[in-house]
Amino acid sequence: MASERRGLLIILSSPSGAGKSTLARRLRAWDDRIVFSVSATTRPPRPGEEDGVDYHFLTESAFKKEVAAGGMLEHAHVFGNFYGSPKPPVRAAIEQGHDVLFDIDWQGAQQIRNSELGLHTLSIFLLPPSIAELKRRLESRGQDSAETIARRMQKSWDEISHWDGYDFVLVNADLDETEARLKSIVTAARLRRSQQPGLTEHVRRLQAEFEDGGTP
Ligand SMILES: Nc1ncnc2c1ncn2[C@@H]1O[C@H](COP(=O)(O)OP(=O)(O)OP(=O)(O)O)[C@@H](O)[C@H]1O
Ligand SMILES: Nc1nc2c(ncn2[C@@H]2O[C@H](COP(=O)(O)O)[C@@H](O)[C@H]2O)c(=O)[nH]1
């Protein structure tokens, strides 16, 4: 089939610490057609985070300027900081036939589903196996202060309460199993009829072959 498919916008959301970034890394390592949308944020970098790789770290005024100029596909205020997905890299990746992966909260997911780009979205919500395990994961990550962890735990239900708006919901208990399920979901989404624009042509060719007596 000759025609190029249009890329998918793959959205991962979850309460903080449930495993989005970990699984996003695994998805990207699996298939280089998946391009990660590097978000902009006003939160300070964590140790080891690189500007332009993990996030684009912006001042609040630079962030607001970007939003005012229409440069964000979506944006939200999360845990006291601004976060947003810059539009130009998403457009460029889609034009090159890539899928774009977003690690964003429910507000951003909602905005992307309703965005003017009119692209196909695939949204997946990750649930933690328990609230106690969520806290353990945030603590074991070892990158946030006790105060930050407490704030994120306090907001965890707010995020979880939006689970119902997603195409798929996975309980991220065993990491390898969740990874395998995610890959299956992406594979299946790429096989949707709407994602295979050459299908109609292919069926027409089969019909022509059939009518030309190509059957035994
Ligand atoms: N299935 C799992 N089992 C055990 N530990 C996990 C699992 N998934 C992720 N983790 C660990 O939990 C911690 C938090 O994961 P991660 O940073 O990916 O969460 P996140 O959802 O991206 O968080 P945030 O929203 O704050 O960015 C990490 O230390 C990660 O290694
Ligand atoms: N709406 C958006 N949410 C985003 C974006 N980038 C990240 N996030 C979400 O923020 C929290 C906290 O992230 P952290 O890196 O500070 O732990 C998490 O839920 C992310 O999914 C974005 O561009 N838009």
Automatic annotation (TrEMBL):
GO MF annotations in UniProt: ATP binding; GMP kinase activity
Q: Where is the Guanylate kinase-like domain?
A: 7-187
By its UniProt entry, which SUPFAM superfamilies does this protein fall under?
A: P-loop containing nucleoside triphosphate hydrolases
Q: What is this enzyme's EC?
A: 2.7.4.8
- Which keywords does the record carry? ATP-binding, Cytoplasm, Kinase, Nucleotide-binding, Transferase
Q: Locate the coiled-coil region(s) and give their ranges.
A: none
Q: Name the catalysed reactions.
A: GMP + ATP = GDP + ADP
- Assign the protein's first listed, main location to one coarse class: cytoplasm
CC annotations in GO:
cytosol
What's this protein's function? Essential for recycling GMP and indirectly, cGMP.
Q: Which family does it belong to?
A: Belongs to the guanylate kinase family.
Name assigned to this protein: Guanylate kinase
Which gene holds the coding sequence for this protein? Answer: gmk
